[in-house]
Amino acid sequence: MSLVLVMLIPALAVAGCDRQAAPDSQPQTSAASAESAAQSDAKGELNGTLDIASRGKAMPDFTVTDPSGKTLRLSDLKGTPVLINLWATWCGPCVLEMPMLDKLAAQHAGKLRVLTVSQDIDGAAKVGQLFAQRKFARLEPWLDGENNLGFFYQTGMLPTTILYDREGKEVWRMIGAHDWSGPRTAAMLAETLGQ
Question: Which is more confident, 182 or 13?
Answer without folding.
Answer: 182
